[in-house]
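Give me structure tokens for this 227-residue protein.
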Amino acid sequence: MPVTSMPLKAVPQQRTVIEPGGRVEWEAVVASSRSGRPHRRGARGQGLVEFALVAPLLIALAFGIFDFGRGMSANVTVTNATREGARWLSTQASNLSSPYGSACPSGTSLTSTSGQLQAWNQMLNANLSMSGVSQITVYFYKSSNNPSSSSAFTGWDLKEDCTRSGSAFTGAVSPTTGSNTGDSTYAPQTGDWVEFRVIYQYTTATPIIHQLMSTVTIDQATTMVLE
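Here you go.
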């Protein structure tokens, strides 16, 4: 015999009420036949009010996590790009003449073989927004001039600076002599140091986070020894 479910019905119940003077009366109470508990009126409305209060915080948190993840991904990509550029220069710069394997991008792309090209392709292949790349700089240091012994990005012997101006990059395509030696004839050689730096402006995507913080500067550099 097939079993059919019975619809949930309200079952009247009674409870004893003792009023002042000792008089006993019976009061009807409507309860659920399943739970046996009195029905709570207004519970649904209370839940909606609580959700309305908490929802904006949850949405802001979700957007924050999303933007934080994108920012961390951009930071890792920029770091890898500096490694690619420094690695290429560490194997090539001492074998090349001026500008020693460095070149500024032309417009928004690089066409010449250079350390900047290696870094550029690394960011491009990771689908990073290339309009956020604001600076690509190469620093060379003599072997006796360890870059870790001085403040960041100071005391270099040679620098090739590429800075974005509008939609194109401008700057020194040929090396600029550093202030620590004054040696205008310096050329990178085996045993010297190369430091590759990329500055990237990460733009937040979600409207809520963008109102609080529109851009975040990512500044990464990698140092290697020329081979």
